[in-house]
Each structure stands twice: as C-alpha cells, then as structure tokens.
Amino acid sequence: MSGRDLRDKVLGGVEHYSRKYLYDVLNSLVEIPTVSAWGGADMARGAGLVASLLKETGFNVEVKSEGGHPAVLAEMGEGSRSILIYNHYDVQPPDPLELWDSDPFKLRVVGGKVYGRGVADNKGNIAARLAALEALSPYIEDLDIKVKVIVEGEEEIGSPTLERIVAGNLEWFKADGGIWETAYVRRDGRLSISLGFKGMVYVELTLRGASRDVHSGYSPIVPNPAWRMARMLTIIKDESGRVLVPGFYDDIDVEFLKMGESLLELVDVEDLEALREELGLKGFVGDLKGYEALKALHLNPSINISGLYSGYTGKGSKTIVPSTASAKLDIRLVPGQDPNKILEKLLEHLKANNFEDMEIHVESMYRAGYTKPGAAIVKASTEAAKEAYNKEPHILPMAAGSGPIYIFTNIAKTPMTGAGVGYYGSKVHAPNENIRIEDFHKGVKHVALTIINFATTPLTRKA
Amino acid sequence: MSGRDLRDKVLGGVEHYSRKYLYDVLNSLVEIPTVSAWGGADMARGAGLVASLLKETGFNVEVKSEGGHPAVLAEMGEGSRSILIYNHYDVQPPDPLELWDSDPFKLRVVGGKVYGRGVADNKGNIAARLAALEALSPYIEDLDIKVKVIVEGEEEIGSPTLERIVAGNLEWFKADGGIWETAYVRRDGRLSISLGFKGMVYVELTLRGASRDVHSGYSPIVPNPAWRMARMLTIIKDESGRVLVPGFYDDIDVEFLKMGESLLELVDVEDLEALREELGLKGFVGDLKGYEALKALHLNPSINISGLYSGYTGKGSKTIVPSTASAKLDIRLVPGQDPNKILEKLLEHLKANNFEDMEIHVESMYRAGYTKPGAAIVKASTEAAKEAYNKEPHILPMAAGSGPIYIFTNIAKTPMTGAGVGYYGSKVHAPNENIRIEDFHKGVKHVALTIINFATTPLTRKA
Predict the structure, then answer these.
(1) Across the interface, which of B224, B234, B316 has its CB nearest the CB of A231?
(2) A77 and A155 belong to one structural domain
(3) Burial grade of B134 (CB within 10 A; 0-12, 13-18, 19 or more)
(4) Core-most of A275, A318, B125, B180, by most CB within 10 Å?
C-alpha cells in the first residue's frame, strides 16, 4: 500500500470513528465523576472504562498503581519507532455547582458544543485519541510503529505517583516521541501547541489561634488567625505580582528563557486582549500588555491563592473568632527552579517574619519540563496541524498551566508535542466546561496525521 | 399572705417546675432548628411553641412580625409595677457540625450537663424563666405586678426588626425594670451580670476580579481578589488589635468609660487567665493581661473577621484564580459610637486606599446600650443572686458580646438587669454548647427572687 493510500484510508476511518467517540464514548467517560481530589470508588471505575476502551481498540492493557489512583498503560504494534501518548482520566471538582447550566457529569450537546466536566480537560482528548487510534489500528504494522498509551488518574492533584510508575518502567516510557495531554484552538482558528509545562508546588498553609472557635465578643483579646493570614499573604506577593520570597527567581534557566522569548515573538497577542475583555478586566496584573503579558504568562513563575478560608463562610451571619485560617497556594515553576528549594525558601521567609507556627500540608510538588522546537515529533505535529486546521499552529515554549511533563521529557527523555480538542472558550477547571464539535473532529484528524507524519519522516533524536 | 409565706411557696414551686422545664420543655425547644441565619418554616414553628408555652403558664399572648421572623409578646397581671423579660428563640448555625459530639438539635444529658444548640444561648433561659413564671403565676396579684415577656427570633442575625416592633408598641415596652436575655456563672461560682451590651455592625465585604473563576495558569496576569482582600484586611486593624480606621475611637462616651472602669475594678481577673489556658493561648492580643485585658474585653470597640472565603475551600487541590473574595466582619461598638458613622468611616478608609470597587452587604447594625448600676431592678437581681448562688455576683458595666439592649434602655427607657443559666464553659456559638444542670436550677430561683425583690422594694426610676 502506498503512503497516500494509507493516509486516505486512515482519514476515512477518522471521519467514521470521530462521531462515535464524540457522543457515546465521551458520554460514558463524563458520566463517571472521577474527581481525583475526592477519590473513592469512581476512580477505579474510570480507570476500568479507559482500560476496556483501549482493549476494544486492539491494545494490550495493564492497570498499574503505586498506591495512588490507578494508571492505565497500553501498547499496540511492534514497530521500530515508538510513540507515547499521555492523558489523564481524572477531573477537577465541579464546584461551584450552582454556576453550571446542566449536570457536569452528563454530556450536554447544544449549539455545536458539548458540555461536561472533563470534555476539554482531559476526557475529550482521551476520546479523540481513541478515535484516531481505532482508525490507525489496521495500519500499525504498515507504519512500522509501536504506540504506547498512559492514562493516569492523578493529574489534577499533581500526579503524586506518576513519577514512581515511570521510574519503575523506565524503558517502557522511553519513546522516540510523545503526545502530551492537550493543545487548544485559538480565536484565530490556529492550534496552540505547548512544548512545555510549568512545575507546581501546591500547599495548604494553616494558622491557628484558640483551640476552638470562640464567641466573637472575645475578639478584643483572643487572637484571630484570619488577621494573621491576611498579613502573611501580603508578604508573599506584592501588588505588581512580584513574588517577595527572597531567592524565588534565582535559579531560572536563562537558556530556556532566551529560546522561549524568541518563540513568543512569533505568537500574536490578540487572544490575550480578547480574554481580558471576556473576563471583564480593566487590565492585567501590574498593567502588563501585549508581548510583556505574553512573556509573564508563559515564562514567569508565580504564586497564586486558589483558596482561602476561615471561620463562618455560610449564609448570613455568625459571630466567632475562628480557631484556624487556611490558604491553598499554587506555585507555578519554570525550568531551572527546584520545587524543594522553592518550598524551603517560602518557609524560611515566613519563619523570618514571625509565622514560624504556620502549619503546611503539601498537596503536590514537581518541576517544569519542556521539549525543544526542533524535535521530530514537534515537526510532525506542526505539519499535521497545518493540514487538520488549515492554518499554521502557534508553538509556545511553555503553557501557562502546569503538568508533570518533566517526568517524560527529563526522566524518560521522551520529546513531547501537543494535540487537543479544547478551544479558548473551553472554561477548563470552571463551570460549563465545553468543547466545540468541529474542534473535536479536527483534533482526531490532527492526532492521526501526527502519528503518520512521525512514522514516515526522519528522526531528530532528543529534545 | 405574708411576704415570707409567699416567698416560701414560690421557692417550693421553683423546685418543682425547674425539673419539668429543664427536660421536657427545653428538649422541645432545642428540637426545632430555629437558626435565624437559615430562616424557613422552623422559625414560625419555634415562635408557635414559645407562644403555646406562655399560654399554658397563664399569659395573654400575641405573635407579631414586622416582616422578619415572628416575635412573641405576652402579658400577665394587672399590677402597678411592671417588669419586662427579654429572650430570643433563634440560635446560631450549628456548624462546624463535625465537631459536635452529638446531634445539636437533640437535648443530650450527660455528666450533670445538658448539650444542644441554644441550651445556653438562649433557649435554656426561656425554659428557666418559664419555670420561674409558672411558680410565680398564682401570686402575680399578691405581688401587684405586671409581667411582660418578649421573645424574638432574630437576635443572632442582629435583631433587624425588633426596633420597629418596639417603636410600634412603645408604651407596652416601657417598664419599671427588665431582665435581659443572659447572665452566666463564673469559675468562682459567682453570677456575672452585664448591665449593657455592645452595639454591632455586621458586614460582608466582597472584592471581585475576573467575571468567572479562571484556570490558575493565568495567575501571572489575571488579578486575584484574594490577594487584594488580604491587603485590604491589613489596613483595617494592626497586629496590636488597634483599629486603623480614622476616627473609629472618636465618639466613645467618656462618662460611660469612667463608670465602667470603676465597676471593673471590683471584678477579679482569674476567669480570664483560666480562659486563656483553656483556649491554649500563649497570650492575648497585644499581650494584654489582667485588668487591662478586662478593660479591652468590656469597654473597647473592636473589628473582628468572623468569616473569610475565596476560591476553592474543599478537600484537596483545585487550581483557579478565584473571581471573588469575601470577608464577614463584625464590628462591636461601645456607648457613644453611632453605627452609621462607623460604617461610613470604614468605607471612606477603604475608598481612600483604592478599594472603591469593594461591594458591601450589611447584615445588621445597632448601637450599644446599658443600665446604670443604681437602678432598682439591678439591686433586686443583685440581692436575688446572693441568695440563689450564695455568693455576691459580679456586675459588669458591659458584656463582651452584643445585643440590641439599646432598644430597651435607650428607646423604651426600661432599665435592664441580667439573669441566666449558662456558665464559663457553655461554648456559646460553638460546637457542644452546654449548661450545667445545677446552674439551671439556680437560674430559675434567681429569676423568681429577682421578680419578688423587684415587686417588694422601693423603685429608683430610670437607669
């Protein structure tokens, strides 16, 4: 069979399967509330469903756990070139529930879009890749490739056991190229592919006052940890967005920054301006604009308050001096920053400012990772994107978001590119998460073409 | 019948009824979750129960509403001297529920104590006064008194409609003396009676960022209202507990302060030290000790954070830039401070510091009120306390807590004293709220004797 014939046949299959996977398969994935922050029996149900879907597509499947939520590992083909596909079946909590227009755990199709928790992040991508792989499955031998799939269940809580799973199966995870969990369509219709993801330190900090909540008549004399929490937060970051922790910016990889800045020069900034307007914002942090905002978003580390709570947070009034105050902070790291060192610096800073009694709970901790733009898998996906989206993709040196990609790029030494079915309006991690149906179909085509391109073009080993 | 005979008969009745009211009646009151912050049908059920209990005791009863939760007004006797008894049937929310050792809405009797939401604040006092009134009811004519009872349902949300009810029935609320909702037993076994209560301004302040929660990858550029809230709170109060709002302390009534300070000199400070230890605190705010802590507690106005929330406050991690951050502040006022002016000063201060976009929701707002220690009703209750508790009571110029007593002392011009069944360990507004059974019985006796004393000693009109 000629290359052209194979390509045409696969693309025929893509059209066929992409409908099936969008409705039936994605619905079955969304229906299981695999919220990793909640845990429970639904996690194993979710992993089981992914495993059986992969089996039906022709994969050999294994479910592995290193004490956390199970991960599904699957393999198809015996070819000389290997490609590794990464996804996760877990999702973010759906709250605030009252802001959803429909049940987050039922697929809702309306106005050319599908809604549900995880349709963009990341169950829609699982479905899209399964559709592409089902279309490719008859031709795996012709393409002389080996496809490996890892679908984990802990990405939204910082992938605490993924590194152990990879380290314990290092050879298996070493591949000639890989496809990371996402990519998304911009306002201009171009696919945005991120070649790296920031690292993460997610901590919950707690200050305590009295051993129990006390009637707030006592507030003139009983210390209130909420006031202290407010003071503590103000010494972590200033109004301009600059982190005040000494040494926080010290170890940033300058070579990465240079590469990143030059890639960002090719990216237009209209999406950022449109986002600002959609969010009803007068300006960004520190009044950043254009290229400067783009650089801050993709190349700066940051500290964010994801949650803050103390005392009575219900309806109406309750009058107490709360006994505790807590803040959930997510710290996003760029290449060069070591999560352990960063955490240590934060704690030293707080200690030096009389918060030595602060309690810390570490939710997750991992470093940033990235692939250089010259890698063969990046070229394969760039070419595939031109064809599937009919437009040149945007290549970002690093996403705004985090992901444990370093486990693949730094530990398994597998260069990674991106693919994905979400778009700028997908409301990832927020109520009414959604994807556009046309993006789903283009996304399936893009994955299939990336794999064909990768199988049929010369390799440039190592990112 | 001689005064001695009547007294003995009433005290016999007190012993009898105090058992009945502690178990059956208090249980029936606790079982209705009259959480005024929640509202709902239970409020009317609660008012209905109080009304029928008063009717059974021989009162003429009327239920009134000025658009809020209903208040029960009752009257018995036609005597020449009038006494007004104030209570509230509403309670604080029970949360955090997980810290209760039993259902907050079922009376639990164990180890000489009874537990349940409201047993101290304020349903136990309703039951105790009903017991005393049932014992007194055959002798109302002999005592030549008129007893008026008001039981409202909005105290815990700041009594928003009580003032309208009183203003609309001003003659009815004018009495020669009155008994306020509480008093409590100290560690030394002495009853602590407060002659005044602080005022209150309860507000919820909200800052907004983006129009929706955003994936926290955007945190380098999307403004996070939680950081701003932290900054805003730090300009409201300093570490020593001093309020930073300009003019906050300006209008405090100096004459009241003088009177208060001299009364507090008679109060011993051991209870405060014991409280500090019980709460596991190394020190009080600003390292206040002894008489200075006592003065701060009873004579200082204050601003407290009762609740603080932004973003994800659930289990585990969620990574968002929250779209809102809110703080519930309760501001306690002392005589001389005008709630409207104080609120205005706070808002001006925040506006002047670039928080002009802050949104405010006012939950409640009322001034402080107090009775001078020389009033006849205060003397009657002091003498009654010596007999019921076998110890001299502590007379405080003002409680640490708030209550709309000004409606009685300032508007209806009725001097008020206190009585109550709680003790230092009652955990008012907190999980495992409880009273001691022996305090309940003493409390019933104290109320009965206060009324007898008041009916039989010369009047000093006006507080």
Answers:
(1) B234
(2) yes
(3) buried
(4) B125
Under 8 Å between Cβ of A265 and A295: no
A182 touches chain B (CB under 8 A): no
CB pair distance less than 8 Å for B315 and A92: no
**A20 plus A156 within the same structural domain:** yes
Answer yes or no: do A241 and A340 share one domain: yes
Determine, yes or no, domain membership for B257. Answer: no
A81 and A217 part of one domain: no
**Side-chain half-sphere of B314: how many Cα atoms within 13 Å?**
17
Phi/psi of residue B50, nearest 5 degrees: -60, -45
Full-model pTM: 0.84
Q: How many domains does chain B have?
A: 2
User: What is the extent of the structural domain holding B185?
Assistant: 3-198+369-456
- In chain A, the residue whose alpha carbon lies closest to the alpha carbon of B225 is A305
Residue B454 pLDDT grade (very low, low, confident, very high; cuts 50, 70, 90): very high
What pLDDT does A459 receive?
Answer: 64
B270: in domain: no
Q: Based on the domain organization, do A51 and A67 belong to the same domain?
A: yes
Q: Do A328 and B306 count as a contact with CB atoms less than 8 A apart?
A: no
Chain B environment of A356 (Cβ under 8 Å)? none
**Do B362 and B383 reside in the same domain of the chain?**
no
Examine residue B381 and state whether it is found in any structural domain, yes or no.
yes
* A-contacting residues in B 210-239 (Cβ below 8 Å): 210-224, 226-227, 229-231, 233-234, 237, 239
Same domain, A75 and A127: yes
**Residue A306: closest C-alpha in chain B:** B320
Q: Which residues of A touch B302 (CB under 8 A)?
A: 219-220
pLDDT exceeds 60 at position A461: no
Could you read off the pLDDT of A448-457 as tens digits, one per residue? 999 999 999 7
Nearest alpha carbon to residue B144 among B3, B316, B350 = B3
Given a contact cutoff of 8 angstroms between Cβ atoms, the answer to whether B373 and B193 are in contact is no
Whether B69 has its CB under 8 Å from any CB of chain A: the answer is no
Domain endpoint, select from B335, B366, B397: B366
Pairing relation of β-strands B71-76 and B145-152?
A: antiparallel
State mean pLDDT over A122-147.
Answer: 97
| CB within 8 Å: A400 and B217 | yes
Closest by Cα among B129, B128, B47, B51 to B89: B47
Which residues face B70 on adjacent strands?
none
Q: How far apart are the first and last CA of chain A?
A: 32
B residues 266-325 closer than 8 Å to A (CB): 272, 275, 278-281, 284-285, 288, 293, 296-297, 300, 302-322, 325
Q: Is residue A151 part of a domain?
A: yes
Q: What DSSP assignment string belongs to A347-401?
A: HHHHHHTT-TT-EEEEEEEE--EE--TTSHHHHHHHHHHHHHHSSPPEEESS-SS
Same domain? A185 vs A215: no
Partner-chain residue, chosen from B310, B321, B400, that has the shortest CB–CB distance to A218:
B400
Report CB contact under 8 Å: B306, A319: yes
Predicted local distance difference test score (pLDDT) of residue B440:
98
> Alpha-carbon distance A53 to A60, whole Å?
11
ipTM field: 0.84
The per-residue pLDDT of chain B, averaged, comes to 95
Each residue's pLDDT tens digit, A431-448: 999 999 999 999 999 999
